[in-house]
Design brief:
The protein is about 10% helix and about 40% strand. The protein has 9 helices and 33 strands. Strands 15-16-17-18-19-24-31-30-27 form a 9-stranded antiparallel beta sheet. Strand 17 and strand 18 form a beta hairpin. The protein starts with a strand and ends with a strand.
Amino acid sequence: MIRRRLSNRHMQGPSQMGPATFPNSFIIDPQGPVHLMLRYSHAMGNSNGNLHKYWEAIDSTFGLQGGFIWDWADQGLLKEGPRGKMCWAYGGDFGDIPNDLNFCLNGIVWPDRSPHPALHEVKFLYQPIKVSFKEGIVKITNMHFFDTTQALEFNWVLHGDGCELGSGILPLPVIEPQRSHETKWESGPWFSAWTSSSAAEICLTITAKLLHTTRWANYGHLISSTQVLLPNRRRVVPRIIKSTDATLLGEVLDDMVKVGQNNYWELKFNKRTGGIEGWKVKGVSVMNKGIYPCFWRAPTDNDKGGGSLSYLSRWKAANLDKVIFVNKSCSIESMNGHEVKISATYHGIAKAEEQTPSNAATSSVLFEVDMTYLIYGSGDVVLECNVKPCPDLPPLPRVGVEFQLDSTIDQVKWYGRGPFECYPDRKSAAHLSIYEQTVGEMHVPYVVPGECSGRADVRWVTFENKDGEGLYASMHGDSPTMQMNASYYSTAELERTTHNEDLKKSENIEVHLDHRHMGLGGDDSWSPCVHDEYLIPAVPYSFSIRFFPKTAATTGADIYKSQFLEE
């Protein structure tokens, strides 16, 4: 007998539900309950966060079979826009009144069936071969109920700090349905590559591919791919940057501070604004403006859902969308031939309709941010940030910094999760490695623009031109990994437009390096549904970022390696 379960707790996430309660589900009950959830994740725009939490429950709960995502495809129609460009149209674009605006755009593929980044997450969580590493055992489980692994080829790849150390075929016995194979990790074919590595992080990736073409997929089709973190062979600790014999050239001209090294790099700092007005490497303009605090993001569909209770409504009620940063003080703490220290304090206030010095002084302070630049003869620039938000603020969209790169600095290479877009609550499928894309390739063209194109758990990133000149940035000291974003489209532009085709490129590239970034949510799109562990409470935060001039003779991996000492 199949019957529909009715629930007055419509579309709640697993963290809000009791162990036996799954809304919008079928119960198939010959002997015991079997649950099949309906509309358990809503794929509207940049969404499908928290999905891994459902699958932790599904994989560990007998009788919980899975569910149906709302929806498969964005239901947009191709239409010529006002400027003659073809675009995906939705409610209201046809003069239709009333309409549901973009509520038909809730798929994990675009209308032309090209995949959203979230589809990678869905495939990963649905994959029938699961791999885990616990207490020294690599466990490979065949989740199929009827198929063995006879039709699959298993392979392994070992990475150290994102660089490949070794790879090969993984010989395994046939694993029967609902059975597992266990291997001591020291007995695996990757062990010799592991013993020769001094990397700070070593990751093992195990994949399963089809051995033969089937009616539904070709030979070599990827069935599963899982990455686990192995123990480090050596213990590494952060290196303390010290002054070197390299000579810094520095001068102060009124409000401008110039620091650099002949024919290598030059940094211009404005004491009046507290920010950088120019950063050159080998004569190439790299950074045109920065580095400033940032706590705002272009709202996603999930941010907007929930009426007066939505995150966006609460952010606007707190004036987070109007915050500007006023430099309250800026001073040169020290300056010599080997080290320069500059400190700046910003107050984040709500921008008035007509900003004047008098109302800026009396506006309530929503954020106080202390930023200290430590500039070394080695070329290192360490930025230390201390953030004090007003405790009455709602959960914050992000905590980080932003800056403007020259439009020619459009090659991005990073060691972190990828290669596709990923966020704190939607990153299970994104493996750690070193990836490279252009700024244009990183953009995700959601039909309705909003926050997009982020990459999670970034250890280091380089931004460079086609000749290899640019800038390196990484987490520093005890700071955690970063959320990184680089785009031709400013946050304000992503928020302004209602169709991707209407976006206008900026003169510069806007970069965000976030200490914390709020999750996307996805249990639904009509209530605030980001789970608590992915919210950012308005409490003090401290973090530091290391910058370094990037030249054609250096690599991000080498600069990153210089941050650590072996013990």
